[in-house]
Amino acid sequence: MDKFTVHTGTAVPLRRSNVDTDQIIPAVYLKRVTKTGFADGLFNAWRADPDFVLNNPAYSGASVLIAGPEFGTGSSREHAVWALRDWGFRAVISPRFGDIFRGNALKDGLLPVELEQPAVEALWDAVEADPTLAVTVDLEAREVRAGANVWAFPLDDFSRWRLLEGLDDISLTLRHEAAVTAFEERRPQWKPAVI
Amino acid sequence: MLGEAPRTLSEKVWDAHVVRSAEGEPDLLYIDLHLLHEVTSPQAFDGLRMAGRQVRRPDLTLATEDHNTPTDNLITIADPISRTQIETLRKNCAEFGVRLHSLGHAQQGIVHVIGPQLGVTQPGMTIVCGDSHTATHGAFGSIAFGIGTSEVEHVLATQTLPQHKPKTMAVNVTGELPAGVTAKDLILALIAKLGTGGGRGHIVEYRGPAIEKLSMEGRMTISNMSIEWGAKAGLIAPDETTFAYLKGREYAPKGDDWDRAVEYWRSLRTDEGATFDTEVTIDASSITPFVTWGTNPGQGVPLDAVVPDPESFEADVERTAARKALEYMDLKPGTALRDIGVDVVFLGSCTNGRIEDLRAAAEVLRGRKVADGVRMMVVPGSAAVRAAAEEEGLHEVFTAAGAEWRFAGCSMCLGMNPDTLKPGQRSASTSNRNFEGRQGRGGRTHLVSPPVAAATAITGRLAAPADLS
Ligand code: SF4
Prior knowledge:
The complex is a heterodimer. Helix content of chain A is 33%, strand content 16%.
């Protein structure tokens, strides 16, 4: 996994709540069997509208997405995270994320940053007033900085450590393989098996 | 301490699966059953291959084809990209020794329908799948939740998952559902009340007399939609209804094992005196047929109501969301829900594609006709549901009414296979998501129960069976 320490970039204000993963990437784009090449599917239906914020050239090259509450609810599709990464996003800021999306993002080096609604609104206003505003997402300090403002965000120590180090979960778990084997020996034999 | 302090159902199941726990780290949970389908697994198998890893427990892994499959035939997948995805699953399952129920197999079907029907979904298990509606299996008293593709790879490689322990929530459903009101109405009403984020960070237990009275099919409908209000998982305590459903199924324990298993399953019920981090109560007796008007499952009202005025919402974000939803849905505030005409009625999905759902709809349709200009699709949740329905003659009721009787699959639940809404078309759908474009780009979805779907097909407008003469 890519490491995440501190990222600074410009940001896109997405003034919508309940941005479900079907909006982030519609199902027709999920047929690919690779992990890349999903950028064309990102917000595909909304991008058909010329006024959609991602179509605004002022925000081209932005790498931080600022969205309303309940971002990434719905379908478990990790393709939503891959598409955001392919497009160039490194962090998403929202008051609340769908659980599965949040977990997926943490696995793929896309930082889900939870800020309270007033902070999100302040960021929306600031970025709309100045699309070139640099927004810094600092995982080491667990804070977002923009202009003179600083907001702290929560993230558990373990997830933070994994991201800072760019660690892969499977290798971490395989360090405990003996414990897994011991657990398997204790499992009741009547539990179902399909082979 | 374990075994001493009173614990909830989900805590007992969780504790029984902890392989390793360490301060400041997520628990490492053992996974009893890993379900796979073609959409969220290819990149996970690729990851295994690249790292030179095997599937640790193919015997605890089961794959099916459901999302991309056509429902008008069992042979041809016309779209080449869909076909490649299915063929990739077939190749991966063959290479890694995973059992697969392919299109045409007697046990093919929607991943969340086949687990219970085979009896491989049992109480007290941990069940995962790269699919958010995995919560369905919680109806048996299992911790079942959806995961992303990275986690699919993790489970394939290790049969475990690192998980932070969620908080617990009780949803107490008091009273009794009135006649003609279904589990679907109950869960839609609950989501409207608590919001799409209401369950976030919690494993929920649905309990109380109204839940206990539900059949397994009804319970699965409830647990299925846990994710639609943000819950990690939604459990229902196993009881006699659960045991009766499981007994004799292909993978249910047999003989002495059955007795041992039942004894264990009985011990899983939430202890007297156990506490939940959050408790909510909803009165089932006040619920009436419920439908959605907007573009998330929380935007629902009783069928008797009118489309709400966005300005009536308190929070700014909700007002904006309602305005956008009405624009997308092409609806005006104050319109009676019963005045909304539909083009398509979809009966199916992992929410309402089981035999009881088909029976409920067939009962309404028997001797009646689907309205002119309305297309009704009946898509059984699995090949076995289809066969059972045919045995009962339900397919004849549907076709006599003018509905289409199709093969099993996800079908119009999501716009990934040939069954989609056309732009601007409006559906009454027994599925679980009314997101923009979910059933096809530009399509407009109203979520409904099977009896409401059937009545709507007959009148051509959102309706309940009681509205039919
Ligand atoms: S029926 Fe719908 S919700 Fe269920 S698994 Fe298929 S696509 Fe997902």
